[in-house]
Design the sequence.
């Protein structure tokens, strides 16, 4: 039995320059201190009502991430910028900022290496391998796609960067925008993993008089629990329907939150496509086939959810054009699907809270429930073999990212 | 082995009076003949761009439904009005129309009985038991909740009606509106099944510059495949978070499309609630517990989806307040969850189409793919026993609805 290696493929930071930029702004997204207690708040959405979420060093200080990793026995983290990314900037600013962010992310990984070298915790992984990062592309309205391709070239040549995170807006028209074709082509050529992550959710829905989330006080629960995975499902589906994976079969897309709402809706999607020949005829395969081409974090918080996602990924070949394979026996899909799933924490979001709901910010000794839940969810999937679980804990990520 | 009985709990009609009403209207929702080929189209949403879907006798003629049932060996159907329901009417009209619709639905079932008596097909179920219906409540802005309670009393006393279908808007503020408390109480008291069905979807999202569905031509795929189950998930979650199932533990809610996006997101929901003590403290149980109190149609089009839903329903007791049960062994949750699932077709939607995408309306001899897919999905769940499958095919519905 090989030793467990724990890789966190879904863990966020803000770079210090990005924090300064957000502090300097007077409209959202911005970091402000207008809260009653004077703490810094990050307000992301234009219509943010709560004033935003409390932020502190855990969002940008590398020492905090290193402490979190050692405390939870995380061997390797692949950090990524948290939202907002760069689509609130004008095109030249977005290009400049992407360049700066990628340099800062590389620097962040170097600083982490020094810290790990001094205090390795109980990890058997060498210091220089323990902190990697997704870079960022200048995806904002008006940016020339050649600038985005250039950012991918910069990422590919940056030793600690092994992909790029992106939201669902693209250049303003979403990810099914034909203008993004050179981006998919370049990412596939370089083997860079693109990490698709929700950003804006779907809550501000004009078709419901009281909005999709209504008027009852449910805190951030509905936009976070449902809005984010809805957005991810919509963006991923639009990529599939646009034929992106037909034209770029080697594109490596990692989908946040275990694919959001998409896996459980994929046969419904296939049925809707089958009843719309205009869409159906332009795709090479049944939509369910493409789910087997994607990668998924295991940030779903429950074993039944993870098992479902693995089964749905693993059955993909049944839906390849021309496939005649019958239903496989019980459990046959699991082993195949599970190879595309990988542990994540979503740190520093979902921090420990006190009884009254305030966030514990002096958290250097806390074990985070969001981490233990996602670890236990993997351990508890009844149908997964021990080696499948070791894959999800870290080996699948080691292989995908060449760690 | 008991004989298979096939019950369709998700099958729609329009009453002829409702069709006349929709034909008389000049704004959406309405039925019009402005299409190039002069066929009747039903345009439901205010912003309907495609002109609406082609409608014909299969939507209102009882002979068509009887033929469909006999052709697909469906023993019993519980028909329900399709959207739009009554929320486009003013309050007095909605009350009157609900009364008329419920009378017409009862009449529809009586007519079906006569037809079955004459031509029973191969069903062994007696004619008078084969057509049942969900009634409709006057859920529209400004309606006095006592009128809604009255409609439930009328439904309860109507021999062929065994529940009521409803969308997600309630009286305009959604289903978590405290004004609806007497409705939940009365439905629970009568044991009437409320069938929660999406209506408006979530597509018209102001937070995405190109809308959630973008600008590429994907026909109706995105709003149907994703928007509908998003809406269902949001509405069901809002009911849970509002404590409706804490106050009305005997409320019987049947959720369309296998719960839409909710089952796969339920552990994420639980995690978000756990991190928001304000919401968490007012609920009696972990949100996942409530999923075990609901009923689900099996309209998910794939065996892996159905298995996932059953597992997620079946684990609910693990999340009861104070529960200390460890993880059950592999498959232990399936048998419990599957008892709350029941076959449906969504007829007359998803009709057979020709190669060019036109709907086959002279379909009296066609086998519908949407039916065979949902039947095969049940048959193909590897983890389900034969008796569990017979339950989903019909016996669960017989028991729930007292058929």
Sequence:
């Amino acid at each position: 039995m090989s030793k467990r290696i724990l890789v966190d493929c879904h863990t966020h930071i803000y770079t210090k320059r990005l924090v300064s930029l957000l502090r300097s702004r007077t409209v959202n997204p911005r970091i402000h201190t207008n809260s009653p207690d004077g703490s810094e708040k990050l307000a992301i959405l234009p219509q943010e009502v709560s004033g935003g979420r409390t932020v502190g060093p855990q969002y940008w200080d590398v020492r905090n991430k290193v402490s979190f990793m050692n405390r939870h026995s995380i061997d390797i983290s692949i950090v990524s910028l948290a939202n907002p990314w760069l689509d609130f900037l004008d095109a030249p600013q977005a290009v400049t900022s992407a360049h700066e962010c990628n340099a800062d992310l590389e620097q962040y990984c170097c600083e982490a290496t020094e810290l790990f070298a001094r205090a390795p915790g109980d990890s058997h992984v060498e210091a220089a391998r323990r902190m990697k990062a997704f870079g960022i592309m200048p995806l904002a309205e008006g940016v020339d796609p050649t600038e985005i391709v250039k950012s991918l070239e910069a990422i590919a040549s940056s030793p600690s960067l092994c992909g790029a995170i992106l939201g669902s807006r693209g250049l303003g028209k979403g990810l099914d925008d034909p203008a993004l074709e050179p981006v998919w082509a370049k990412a596939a050529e370089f083997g860079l993993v693109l990490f698709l992550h929700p950003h804006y959710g779907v809550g501000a829905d004009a078709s419901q008089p009281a909005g999709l989330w209504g008027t009852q006080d449910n805190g951030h629960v509905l936009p976070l629990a449902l809005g984010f995975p809805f957005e991810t499902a919509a963006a991923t589906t639009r990529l599939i329907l646009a034929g992106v994976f037909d034209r770029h079969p080697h594109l490596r897309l990692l989908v946040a939150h275990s694919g959001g709402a998409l896996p459980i809706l994929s046969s419904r999607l296939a049925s809707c496509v089958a009843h719309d020949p205009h869409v159906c005829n332009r795709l090479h395969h049944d939509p369910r086939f493409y789910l087997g081409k994607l990668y998924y974090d295991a940030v779903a918080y429950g074993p039944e959810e993870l098992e479902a996602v693995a089964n749905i990924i693993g059955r993909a070949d049944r839906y390849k054009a021309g496939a005649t394979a019958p239903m496989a026996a019980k459990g046959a899909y699991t082993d195949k699907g599970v190879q595309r799933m990988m542990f994540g924490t979503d740190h520093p979001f979902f921090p420990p809270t006190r009884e009254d709901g305030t966030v514990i910010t002096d958290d250097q000794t806390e074990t985070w429930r969001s981490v233990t839940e996602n670890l236990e969810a993997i351990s508890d999937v009844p149908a997964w073999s021990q080696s499948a679980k070791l894959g999800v804990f870290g080996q699948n990520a080691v292989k995908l990212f060449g760690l």
